[in-house]
Structure formats: C-alpha cells, structure tokens
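Aggregate trends can hide what the representation actually does to any particular protein. The sequence in question and its structure tokens are set out directly beneath this paragraph.
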Amino acid sequence: MVKFIKRVPNIDFLRISRFTIFVSLALIITGVTSLIVRHGLNYGIEFTGGLFVEVHFDSLITTQEIRSALSEVGLGHAIIQRDVTTNYNFFIRTQLTENVTPELITKVLQEHFPNNPLRIERVEKIGAVISRGLKLRAFWVVICGLFIMLLYITVRFTYKFGIAAVIALIHDVLITIGILNILNREFTTAIIAALLTIIGYSINDSIVISDRIRENLRLYPKTPFPDIVNRSLNETLSRTIITSLTTIFVLLALFIVGGKVIHDFSLALLIGVITGTYSSLFVLSPIVVAWERRFPSPETRRRAYYKEKEERAVVTETPPEVTTPTPEERKGRILLPTPQKVDTISTKKKKKKKRKKKR
C-alpha cells in the first residue's frame, strides 16, 4: 500500500482543534452574513423561473459566438450549452422577463449569423410555481441525505458518532454555500448535485476515521479515549491526504479546462472536498471527545480509572536516594566504610534475662 507519510506521526489534533474551531466559526459567520446582506442565494433559472430555448444551426458555431451575439441585448449572462448528442444544437437558458422572448433570441441570432440558418427546436418556460416546488424539493433532498447518514453511522457505530458526523456534514455544506454566495455564483440544480456529492465524500472520510477509532478501542483497552482518537487520526492521516489530493487534482483539471458549463459545479466540489477533509480531522473527532468528557460512557470511565491508577502508582514509587560524592570519590579513590563495633556484653545480658523469664 502506498503511503504518503512513511512513519505514523504524533500530531495532537485535539489540541489544534481548539484553534481551528474559530476558523470554522469565522467561515460560517461570514457566509451567513453574505446571505443576509444579499437577501438570500443567487438562485438560477430552475429556482427563479426562466426561459429555455433549444436552437439548431446548419453549420458549425461556438458557444462564445452565440454569447457575444446575445450580450448586445443584455443576455450575456445566459447559460449556453451544446447538445453533444446532436450536431449543432444548443441550449439557451435565461431569466424570464417581459422583454425576453423566443422571438427576440431568434431575431438576434439571425441578424448576427445570416449565412448560418437556424431553427428553434424547443421552447420551455419555467414559471414561479414550478421554481418554488424545486426549491422545496432541493431542501428536502439535502435534509433526507443528512438524516440517512445519521441513521447509518448510528447503526454502524454509536449515536455519538452519528450526530457528530451530521454536524460535520452541516459544517461542510454551510461553508460551501457561504463561499459560493460570497463569490456570487448561481445556485442551480448542479450545485445541489455537488452538495450531495460533498455529503457522500465527507461521510466516507468520517467512516474511515470512526472505524479506526473503534478498532483501536479494542486493541488498547486501558488507553484513555482522547489518546485513542489522536492515535487513530495519525494512523489514517496518510490515507486522508492521498485520497484528498487525488480528488483535488481531478477537480482542478475540471475547473480549469472543463468550460463554463461545469465551472460552478467543479468549484463547489473543490470547496467541499477541502472542507470535508478538514472537518473529518478537526470537527468530527473533537465533538466526540468533548461529548465523552461531558457524558462519559462506562467504557470511557473504565479507561479513566486505569489511567488514574497508573498515575497514582508512579507517584507512590520512592525515587532512588541520590548522594553527593566525596572529594576522594571524585578523585577515584573510594574509601570502604569503617566496620561498626558490636557490643557483645549487652547482647549476652539480654539473652540471660529472656531465659529467666521463660523459667
């Protein structure tokens, strides 16, 4: 097995988590503040309602040429996608207003590309009622995902690990949404898919660490629980770094060369993978340890008893007597102790008295 770190390190993650908690709080508060200042998320067409037009061209054309043509009438922000299953078919999505109509889009494209005939294949209008329904469904999809993860971790480990894992997932989702909102990215169905992917990725990391903690609890029955958690985090650190780096490299490639269509999707995944790795090290485990300290289980109490017993045994041990060397010993001349004289007369008198008493 390939290891990023050859030797198991000895990093005190629980001590570092006392400082990283302020980083998490700062990111979450900043994201929530941006939501308040901007009056909510920057919803896409699927959630606000909009116009969908499928256009077919007779010859080759690029999405950038179509965007530059639509930008003259204020539609440069429209989402333009190429249909890979059909030649020269493009999907145009834009917000639905009184001035934006399929006829306007057709007229603008015909004026800019007179030598490339086009025809409208499909037109769809997403109303406000449908968009509100999509918002509600997206919310419940994320909530159901978190609830299923809670049940799974609770059944496989304990309810403490399950609740801590869900808190870590909420932490990842909030930070991802906050950063996307700060960057003024559109909140679309692709972002919902990215959030669900982040939940799955982050829970996988949490399961690996939780499983190692459970395994070490069996191997070291007398070791205190915080030491077991630190040991487990250090043992899985190499695996965590390798998995996260390989995923980040792929997402960076998608983000750089993937094009505008999946730009926001890959960005959301990048943020989520980084926060998911961070939360599995500095959010999940500290929550479980703090919970065990506040409401210790019988297993944790037994381990604390063994630790206290060992500390008492170390304290009661008498340290060896240290004597200062004499000048002769320093020079290398060790003097033998003078023999003490034994008072033989007094010992004989004591023996005679004992014999008289016995008689």
Observations:
- Residues 250 and 266 are 9 Å apart (CA to CA).
